[in-house]
Amino acid sequence: NAGVTQTPKFRILKIGQSMTLQCTQDMNHNYMYWYRQDPGMGLKLIYYSVGAGITDKGEVPNGYNVSRSTTEDFPLRLELAAPSQTSVYFCASRGTGRRETQYFGPGTRLLVL
Amino acid sequence: SQKIEQNSEALNIQEGKTATLTCNYTNYSPAYLQWYRQDPGRGPVFLLLIRENEKEKRKERLKVTFDTTLKQSLFHITASQPADSATYLCALGNAGNNRKLIWGLGTSLAVNP
């Protein structure tokens, strides 16, 4: 199993550009999450999904959108990039019931200039 | 509002000693508490989970305690090694809340040879 994979690893965007951060998991997990992590600020939940076709906002959803058309994929869309979106983005997934462990991808480092 | 506090200062210890990290929380009644390890430039990796009805959990050189009266968890690494140097994150969860975790900011541990 590859676990959780994210692409790209690193990206530089200009203000106002758009991009999609890809996240795929091969563990058949229902729950998937997008976090951002800024230095000294901890993990902040952007969006999450409890299954294909179901998504909901986390703590910091403004400026982002998500979709979940399959169990495996959970892309995060930035429509109009802003410098405040410079961060490291992590995707995570977990199983159902008492399988509470979250499995994280390697992260995408995004720089908006 | 819900709050988690971990040792704000970085912890520096000598190789072979026991490292003890603290996680305190307020305004929350978790069903379980997790500890993750994060290395620079990488996603968090799950280490241990302890449930509200458990006092202590062990895994190799790791030990976690959970005191729901004090609202505190202690994370111990015995016989510490330089390879244990990383940031350690505490996270709380419960059966509801759509399986979202509440994350601490983490404690940086440096084990000196």
Annotation keywords:
heterodimer; A: about 110 residues; mainly beta; seven-stranded mixed β-sheet; four-stranded antiparallel β-sheet; about 50% strand; B: about 110 residues; about 0% helix
What does the largest sheet of chain A look like? Answer: 7 strands, mixed
Oligomer: heterodimer
Give start-end ranges of low-pLDDT stretches of chain A: none
Rg for CA atoms of chain A: 13 Å
The tally of beta strands of chain A, per DSSP, is 11
Largest interface: A-B, 23 and 21 residues
**Strand content range of chain A:** over 45%
Helix percentage of chain A:
under 10%
pLDDT average of chain B, as an integer?
A: 93
- Looking at the structure, what is the overall shape of chain A? globular
Question: Distance between the terminal alpha carbons of chain A, to the nearest Å?
Answer: 36 Å
Shape of chain B: globular
Helical region count of chain A?
0
Spatial extent as radius of gyration of chain B: 14 Å
Order of helices and strands of chain B: EEEEEEEEEEE
Low-confidence stretches of chain B: none
CA(first)-CA(last) distance of chain B = 41 Å
Helix-strand makeup class of chain A: mainly beta
The class by helix and strand makeup of chain B works out as mainly beta
Strand content of the residues of chain B, in percent? over 45%
Calculate the mean pLDDT score of chain A and round it: 95
Quick structural gist:
The complex is a heterodimer of chains A (113) and B (113). By secondary structure, chain A is an all-beta fold. Chain A has strands at 4-7, 10-13, 19-25, 31-38, 42-51, 54-57, 64-66, 76-78, 87-94, 103-104, 108-112.
Describe what this molecule looks like in 3D.
The complex is a heterodimer of chains A (113) and B (113). Chain A has 113 residues and is mainly β. Chain A is 0% helix and 51% strand. In chain A, strands 2, 4, 5, 6, 9, 10 and 11 form a 7-stranded mixed β-sheet that branches. A 4-stranded antiparallel β-sheet of chain A has the order 1-3-8-7, with no helix packed on it. The termini of chain A are far apart. By secondary structure, chain B is mostly beta strands. Chain B has strands spanning 3-6, 11-14, 19-26, 32-38, 45-51, 56-59, 62-67, 72-77, 86-93, 102-103, 107-112. In chain B, the strands form 2 sheets. In chain B, strands 2, 4, 5, 9, 10 and 11 form a 6-stranded mixed β-sheet that branches. Chain B has a 5-stranded antiparallel β-sheet with strand order 1-3-8-7-6, with no helix packed on it. In chain B, β6 and β7 form a beta hairpin. The mean pLDDT of chain B is 93. Classes of the chains: A mainly beta (113), B mainly beta (113). Chain A binds chain B through residues 4, 31, 33, 40-43, 45, 48, 50, 56, 58, 90, 92, 94, 100-107, and chain B through 32, 34, 36, 41-46, 49, 89, 91, 93, 98-101, 103-106.
